[in-house]
């Protein structure tokens, strides 16, 4: 008789409502960088924030919930929702009256991936790593100073799995994927991105100070890959390595990250370290086939890192 499969959700801690409250406290500068020569359109920002947060709301959101999240009156929220519904990007459930995204959004992402051809050559090495390890393998690209997951491959089906998620926010100090990118950057760039305030503790193992994080990044830099062992979620460990290609001016640059996640009940620290070397091998293969038209500048990268020299 087939055993049921249990999933460990590899996602940011806390409830969806909590995430909304936290997002509302973000300064506007974290959402849109103000430039004197660019007109800032609040409606566009609000629209995109609605789309982003609806993607995390499994059961949908009401007009009142969206208005509270945006900190606007219901009439403004309703007009934006009505426009999105007319354009078929969202729909309103006739029974619950809650709004949800349509798959038109997913279609846009799939078209972008198809046009970039990034997965044409990248899937094979990722799938090989997943099948060899039997664990979850993910690919992230670096866009606008953030890693963004775009693809995952799962190994053999086991009773206990780490379920792939695609949250917009990858914690820079607790996710191995983010740390694999950070250790390719100069210290001053890391300080700019992380800041000097105490960092959020997702678990009792989370690194919560910049000094400790920089020490962890130094160790990761020496190994060639980053490790997060129950730092973001109890019961889950991850190793990740950067994909390094040459910039147009010949300098090395991190354009993406490959990660491997597994339950700590199946892999201990030593086994994660061993798996890390396999992840590094996969990143070398991906660097060789990385699409030449995926220009780092187009992805909004930071200046080339002196750390990679």
Kindly summarize this structure in a few lines:
The chain is of the alpha+beta class and 309 residues long.
Describe this structure in words.
This protein has 309 residues and is an alpha+beta fold. It folds into two domains: 13-102, Orthogonal Bundle (Arc Repressor Mutant, subunit A), CATH 1.10.10; 116-308, Beta-Lactamase (2-Layer Sandwich), CATH 3.30.450.40. Helix content is 39%, strand content 18%. It has helices at residues 16-24, 42-54, 63-70, 74-86, 104-116, 118-133, 176-182, 187-194, 210-223, 269-289, and strands spanning 6-9, 90-92, 99-101, 136-142, 147-153, 160-163, 226-229, 236-246, 252-263. The strands form three sheets. It has a five-stranded antiparallel β-sheet with strand order 5-4-9-8-7, with helices on both faces. The chain has a two-stranded parallel sheet with strand order 1-6. It has a two-stranded antiparallel ribbon with strand order 2-3. A hairpin with a 5-residue loop joins strand 8 (236-246) and strand 9. Helix 3 packs across helix 4 (74-86) and helix 6 (118-133) packs antiparallel against helix 10 (269-289). The radius of gyration is 20 Å and the shape is globular. Residues 1-37 and 297-305 have low confidence and may be disordered.
């Amino acid at each position: 008789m087939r055993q049921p499969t249990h999933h460990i959700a590899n996602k940011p801690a806390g409830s969806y409502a909590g995430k909304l409250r936290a997002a509302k406290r973000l300064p506007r500068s974290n959402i849109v960088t103000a430039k004197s020569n660019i007109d800032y359109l609040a409606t566009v920002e609000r629209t995109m924030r609605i789309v982003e947060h609806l993607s995390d709301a499994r059961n949908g959101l009401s007009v009142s919930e969206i208005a509270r999240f945006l900190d606007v009156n219901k009439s403004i929220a309703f007009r934006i929702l009505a426009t999105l519904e007319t354009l078929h990007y969202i729909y309103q459930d006739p029974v619950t009256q809650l709004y949800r995204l349509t798959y038109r959004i997913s279609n846009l992402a799939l078209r972008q991936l198809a046009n970039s051809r990034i997965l044409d050559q990248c899937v094979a090495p990722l799938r090989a790593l997943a099948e060899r390890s039997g664990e979850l393998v993910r690919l992230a690209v670096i866009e606008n100073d953030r890693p963004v997951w775009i693809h995952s491959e799962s190994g053999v089906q086991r009773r206990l799995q780490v379920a792939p998620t695609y949250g917009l926010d990858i914690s820079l100090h607790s996710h191995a994927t983010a740390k694999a990118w950070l250790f390719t950057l100069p210290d001053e760039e890391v300080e700019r991105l992380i800041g000097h305030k105490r960092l959020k503790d997702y678990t009792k193992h989370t690194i919560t100070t910049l000094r400790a994080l920089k020490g962890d990044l130094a160790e990761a830099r020496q190994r060639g890959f980053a490790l997060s062992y129950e730092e973001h979620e109890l019961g889950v460990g991850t190793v990740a390595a950067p994909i390094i290609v040459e910039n147009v001016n010949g300098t090395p640059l991190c354009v993406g990250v490959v990660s491997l996640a597994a339950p700590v009940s199946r892999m201990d620290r030593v086994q994660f370290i061993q798996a890390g070397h396999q992840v590094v091998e996969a990143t070398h293969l991906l660097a060789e086939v990385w699409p030449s038209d995926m220009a780092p500048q187009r992805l909004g990268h930071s200046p080339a890192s002196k750390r990679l020299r």
